[in-house]
Amino acid sequence: MIRRSGRATLMAIAVSLFLAAAVTTTRAASESLQQLVGEGASRVLGIYSADGRLGVATTVTEDGYLVTKHSDLARVEGFLEVKVGRRYIQPRVVDVLPEVDLLVLKIPGKALPSVTWEADARSAEMGQWLVSMGAAAEEAALGVVSARTRQIAAKKAALGIELMNSERDPTAQGVTIARVFPASPAERCGLLPRDILLVVHGKEVSSPRDVIAAITALPPGGVLELEIARAGRRLRKTASLSDTSILEAPFDFGRYLNGRTSLRNVDFPEVIQHDTAIDPALLGGALVDLEGRLVGINIARVNRFTTFALPVRTFGKALEAVIEADRASRRGLGVSLLSPAGPVGSAKSRP
Amino acid sequence: MHCSFRSFYWFTSTALWLLCVVWSYAPDATAGLVRDESLAELRDVQQRVQAGLDRSIAATVAVQSPFGVGSGVVVNADGLILTAAHVFSKPGKEVDVIFSDGSTVKATTLGLHEQSDAGLIQIEQSADQEWPFVEMDSGPLDEGDWCFALGHPGGVDEQRGIVLRVGRVLENRRYKVKSDCELLSGDSGGPLFNLAGKVIGIHSFIGGEFSDNYHVSMEPFRSHWAAMLDRKLITRSGHGQGGFLGVGSSSHPDGVIIRKVLEGTAARRAGIQVGDIVTTVDGQPVREYGTFNDILKQKAPGEKVDFTVLRQEETVKLTVQLGERK
Questions:
Q1: What share of chain A is helix, strand, coil (3-state, %, to 5)?
Q2: How far apart are CA A214 and CA A209, in angstroms?
Q3: pLDDT at B142 over 80
Q4: DSSP B163-195
């Protein structure tokens, strides 16, 4: 539970490189934790944009279907690449499972290292060890199931601003921001107090009511386009929305202590809560038990020490259906698996 | 989108439950990185954590006061609760105690030891009621020992229930234990257990690093047990309270050894000397500094107190008229 020494890290990398070659031939349960995380790392791939690594995806079939967290990638413009070994491959966007915030991608392949999973797998029990996999062995982290496996209710989307009441001056254009909440989507996208909101998600706004309606029409994690006026200039901003808990508890230390948390961490049919504080860039990675079986996919970093994972049974059957339908349509069309992928931002997403 | 006084309330209530938070924006802070534990060791830890978990959860409570929510743990069938002093701050106050099954009972705050942040609460007893409880540990505690934490981080959440964290003891000091079981506001007062399911700490405060999780050790509870049951507020070094002796002292195998005698104080007037080992105060044996200090703090300025001291292997009896702290 403590950071390893540099020497141990180097050894772990060496072990993981060795295992990456070996795993495709062995199915036996791992002998050690190091072996387990090495195997896991071969099944979790880094996702890159022109700006560098954005996140990870978990390989769920040997022919190259991948899943990752959708909302963190939804605002990315341009193309994504997946790193397989030393190669960067542009994946095809297959589908989105909006209820569980998963994006399904496809890369070409025949016998890729993949997680093994059963669509109706049992969930994990409180106190059970779980290993969160990263794209390299040293990114893996260990934790336990820390609370009841349960549904997380939906909350309305929020940007994290307080607005001036503009009703006093009906001729004024737009709506002025009075306050920007700390660590909110508004702060992250660079909004400032006294900025004037002109257009919110394609609609011109003239009252706080208009702004609230435009924001809450989107889900938490949704991408909001804004046009603002600042010092006489017109600017465009893009924000990934969070939920209303940032307004209820703007000074909740847990949300910003020890690193970033997820914008969407509500509205899931069921989550496993575990006490592993993973880097949000590792969401979409596999969560496995000590036997190496897939228990879920990490989907949200919630606070200082809490991560939510989707149990396999929340998405397993839907994922199987998406993959089967995609394989069937590809066979029917006879198209190459290397057909160009569109930007992820244009993938099907929740209205 | 709107601001209300709730924001302010949240801020104050959150801040109250953390004695000390060092702000940190660690960019890629990730806790719980895998190290060299064997799978066999992990399976053993898991089995032992899970074995007593139901009982440990049943004894863990939320403590609701007008200031906000903390946690606590029941340590006997009569409903005596260990918690953190900063959860209630004053003896003799009424609080609500909420068990993991949602049942709520009234309780009264007893004493507290300010320096260590140890506090006691007593559930109001109805006849023959037996409360689920766990034991306080009295064995040795070593750095590196596995441990687990329970509590209500962020407050009570009925759907979520009590939250578990598993980690290791990082430091074991006289009044505090440090672990990598990560805590949040609302956890304050909750229990840290060893793998035998006995209480080894009470959650107190956190710092900016993942490993900065501090728990009150069992020592201040044990050494101030009677005074805390007696609803005493034991303040730090007796500042502003109790009679003033005027010595610097520390624990010694035979009692409390005098390291320094201040000029113009009660101790100087009574003839206490550097090197004297105090063995009893008012007939009560003193084996360590905490007890010595507590007894003196309960005496008023001007009160006469009998001391037995060992001076160069001779037993000497002294009477000291306590002075006033200036």
A1: 25, 30, 45
A2: 9
A3: yes
A4: EEEEEEEEEE-SSEEEESS---TT-TT-EEEET
**Concatenated DSSP letters of B14-66:** HHHT-S-------TT----B--S--HHHHHHHHHHHHHTHHHHHHHEEEEEET
CB contact under 8 A, A144 and B33: no
Helical ranges in B244-324 per DSSP H = 266-270, 289-297
The verdict on a CB contact (< 8 Å) between B1 and A256 is: no
3-state secondary structure of A245: helix
Looking at this protein, which amino acid is placed at residue A249? A
**Strands of A107-241, DSSP E:** 129-132, 141-144, 150-152, 157-158, 161-163, 175-180, 196-200, 203-204, 223-230, 233-240
The minimum CA-CA distance between A34 and chain B, rounded to whole Å, is 7
Q: State the Cα–Cα distance between residues A163 and B1, nearest whole angstrom.
A: 7
Q: How far apart are CA B85 and CA A275, in angstroms?
A: 26
- The Cα of B19 is separated from the nearest Cα of chain A by a number of Å equal to 13
Which H or E element spans position B149?
Answer: strand B146-151
Q: Which pLDDT score, from 0 to 100, does residue A165 have?
A: 75
Query: Given this model, what pLDDT does residue A25 score?
Result: 34
- Give the residue-averaged pLDDT of A11-29: 38
Amino acid at A176: T
The answer to pTM > 0.80 is no
| Average of per-residue pLDDT across B310-324 | 89
Contact A108, A89 (CB under 8 A): yes
User: With an 8 Å Cβ cutoff, is B180 touching chain A?
Assistant: yes
Residue B127's pLDDT band (cuts 50, 70, 90):
confident
Res B296: pLDDT? 81
Cα A30 from chain centroid (whole Å): 28
Give the CA distances from residue B278 to residues A103, A136, B245, in Å, rounded to whole numbers and listed in that order. 72, 61, 13
C-alpha to C-alpha distance for A52 and B1, rounded to whole angstroms: 33
Measured distance CA(B153)–CA(A262) in Å, rounded: 18
pLDDT, residue B282, reads 85
The pLDDT of residue A256 is above 80: no
Among B21, B32, B36, select the one facing A277 at the smallest CB separation: B32
In whole numbers, what is the pLDDT of chain B averaged over residues?
Answer: 85
Question: Residue B306, Cβ neighbours under 10 Å: how many?
Answer: 12
Alpha-carbon distance of A99 to B62, in angstroms, equals: 33
Residue of B nearest to A137 (CA): B34
Strands A268-274 and A242-243: unpaired
Kindly tell me the burial class for residue A52, based on how many C-beta atoms sit within 10 Å of its own C-beta (0-12, 13-18, 19 or more): exposed
The strand ranges marked E within A304-345 are: 306-311
Q: Find residues 82-121 of chain A whose CB sits inside 8 Å of chain B.
A: none
Average pLDDT of B181-207? 95
The model's pLDDT over A132-145, given as tens digits with 9 standing for 90+, comes to 999 999 899 999 99
Is residue B15 pLDDT above 50, yes or no? Answer: no
pLDDT at residue A92 above 70?
A: yes
Chain B residues with CB under 8 Å of A148 CB are 159-161
Whether A329 contacts A78, CB under 8 Å: no
